[in-house]
Amino acid sequence: MATPGVADAAVTFDDEERPARRLTGPVDHGVAAVAFAVALLVLWQVFRPLSQGSQFYLIVFLAGVLPLVFLAYRSGLRLPDRLTSRLPARLAPRVPDPDGPSPSRRDLPTVADWLLAGLALVVCLYPVVPLTFGNAGGGYDAFLDRQGLLAPVDVVMGALLLVLLVEACRRTTGWILPVVCLVFLGYGYYGGLLPQTWAVAHAGLDFGQIVDAFYNSASGFYGTPLDVAATYIVLFTIYGAVLDLSGAGRFFVDLSVAAFRRSRSAAGRTAVASGFLLGTVSGSGTATAVSVGAVTWPILRRAGYPAEHAGGMLAAAGVGAILSPPTLGAAAFIVAEYLEVSYLTVLGWAVIPTVLYYLGILLAVEIDARRFKVRPVEVAAGSAWRLLARFGYHFSSLVVIVVLLAVGVSATRAVVYATGLAVVLSFLDRRSWLTPRRLFAALAAGVRGVLPVVAVCAAAGIITATTTKTGLGAQFASLLVRGAQALADNPTVVLALTVVFAAIALSLLGLAVPVTASFIIGWVIIGPALLALGVPAPAAAMFVFYYSVLSEVTPPTALAAVGAAAITGGRTVPTMWQALKYALPAFLAPIAFVLTGPGEYLLGRGAPLEVLWAGLVGCLGVAALAVATGGWLLGVGPARRFERVLAALAGLLLLYLHPVSIAVGVALIAIAVLTALARRRRTAKADPAGPAGTTSEESADQGGTDPAGPADRDSTAGGGEPAAEGKVTGSRGQESGSRGQESGSRGQEFGSSSGEEAK
C-alpha cells in the first residue's frame, strides 16, 4: 500500500479455507496453467454454453478443479513415527508448521497427493468418457439413462468421488464439515432402522440409492451449490483478482486514510471505511480484515487502540465484506438460485441491512473514541479529492455491474464485462498494467481462490441430497414449530420463539462450518420452519443468510477475529469478544426481517415511503443498541447502567417495527437522554471543572484537537507534554504516575499502552 510507514501483512487467510501450500517451480506453473485453462472454460461457458447441458459443464469443471485441491492444500495428517521412519524420504508426508513454511522452504505435493489428484481426474471424467465397461460407461447420455439403476462400476465411481470430496473439504475447511456430511450420510443409510414412531425416521435407503442421489441427480454433487460456484462465484473471484492487481485495493485503502486523517476517530473510521470499500470487491470477511489490518493497524496502534480492540474492529468491518454489494458472499448467489430471482434483486435486499450493519460499527467507533480518549493521529496522505480525480476510475467497474444488471444483462455477463473494463482501465496507472503475464496470473489466482468454495459446495450435495431423499427438512421444521407451540399458543409468540430457536441453531451451526455450507444447511433444515409459519421466502432466506455470515464474528470460532488477531498480535479470544461487541446490533436486525410484516421493508420490499420510514426506525434502533453496548450517549456523555438498559429495551422495541413499539422505544430513548443530561448538569454544578471523560463532550474534534480533561491538565501542569505531541496522558482511577515527561493511562477496558507505541 502507498500509506507511508505501513508494512505489508505476513499472514493471509480466506474466510472458507485453511492456508494453502506455497507452491514453487514447475508444480506451481502447472497448477497455474490448469487453473488458467479452467478460467477460459468458465468464460467460454458464459457466451457459448456447452451443448450437452449444465450438468455436463459441471462435471468437466469439477474434473478441472478437484485435482488442484489435492495439489494446492496439504493433507495435515501425520503417520506414527514408527511408520514414517521406515518410509523413503521422498514418500514420507511433509507436515509443515501450522502457520505454513517459510518462503524459502519448498512445500510440494507428496506422492499420495499426486495419486489422489489423478484418481479425482479419472472419477470426475468417468460419466462423460465415451468408453464402455461391460454394462457401464458409454458416455454422458448413457450415464444419465442409468439414473435410478446404476451399474456396479457407477456405484464404485460414485463412492470414490464421495470419499474424495469429503477429503477435499477436510483439507480446505478442517474436520467439522466433513463430519457433518458423514453424519448425514449415516442418517440416510441407517435412518430406516430408527423407530418409526420418531419424527426423523424414514423408510431407509440402500447404498446404491444413496450414491445415485449423490452422483446422478440434480440435488447431489452437481446440484445448485456447485452450479452457483462454477458460474457466478468463480467469475466474481476472477473479477476481484483482476481488480486487485489493477490497483483498486491500494486505492480504496489510501482513499479511506486520506478522507479521515484529521479527526480524533479517524483511525477507526479509516478501518471501517476501508473494510467496506475493499469488501465491495472481495466478498471474503477474513481476507478483508487481514488486508485492511495490514495497513490500518499501525495507525490504530498510534491512536492508542490496544491490539484486542483494534482486532475486533477490523474483524467486524471485514465481515461486512460478505454483506456489501455488489459482490456479496458466495451464499448470496445461492439465495438467488434457490428463490429463482435475479442477483440484482438480492443486492437490493442487502442495501439497508448493510447500512444498518456499518452504522452500528461506526457508532461503536465514535463511542470508543470518546469513552477512551483516543488520540488524533496525523497520517501523511494526499488529498482525498486528488486521489478520486486520479484513481476514481476504479469505481467504474463496480457501477457497470449494477447498471448492466439493471438493464437486464445476466449476472455472469455483467461481471465479465466489468472484468474486461477493469483490465482496460489498469493501463491508466503504469504501476498496475495488466500485461498478458499479469492477466494470466489474475485468471489463475481467481480459480485457485475458489477451490475451497467448490469443495464446500460439492460436498454440500451430500446434505441436500440426503435431506431431499429422506424428507428431513420438513420433519425438522415440524419439530421446531411444535417445540415453540409447546411453550405458547399465541401465533405471534410461536413465531417469535421459532425465530429465536432458529437464530440460536444457525449461530451454533455457523461455529462449525463455513458461511456457504452454513447457509445451505440452514436453508434446507430451518428455512421450511419459517416458511410454514407464513414468513415470506425472501425474508426467511435473508434471515438465514445473515446469521450464517455473522458466525464469522461469533466466539469461539470467529475466523475473521482469528485473522485480525494474527495481524495485531492480540490475544485471540478477547479479540473475538470485541468483534462480537462491534457487530452485536447486527445480530438483532435480521430478526426484524421475519418477526413482523413491516420487517420486509428493511429488505426494500414495499412502497418507497414504507421502506424509508422502516429504514429510519432501523437506524434509530441500531443507534440505541450501540449506546447499550458502548455505554456512551453521543452529544451527551457517559451512559450509566440505567440509561444503557433503557437504550437496549428501546432498540429491541424499535426493531419490532410496530407503531406502538416504535412509540414506546422513542419514549425510552428520550428518558435515557434526559436522565443523562440531568446527571451531567448536577455533576457540572458540583464540580465546575468537570470529571475526566465528561467535559466538552469530546466530540468537537474535527480540527484534530483533543479536549483536555483534568488528567490532561494535571500532566501538562506538572511539566509533561500534551497528548497532541504524541505522549500518553490521562488518569488511572486516583493514581497518577509521573515518570519524567510521561503520564501513564489505562482505561478499565483499554488494556495497556506503552510509551513506545505512542511514539
From TrEMBL:
**Disordered: where is this region?**
683-759
What's the protein called, per UniProt?
TRAP transporter fused permease subunit
Cite the NCBIfam families for this sequence: TRAP_fused
Q: Give UniProt keywords alphabetically.
A: Membrane, Transmembrane, Transmembrane helix
Where is there biased composition of kind Low complexity? 730-749
Question: In the UniProt record, does the keyword Nuclease occur?
Answer: no
The answer to whether keyword Membrane applies is: yes
Q: Which residues form the TRAP C4-dicarboxylate transport system permease DctM subunit domain?
A: 161-592
Q: Which Pfam families match?
A: DctM
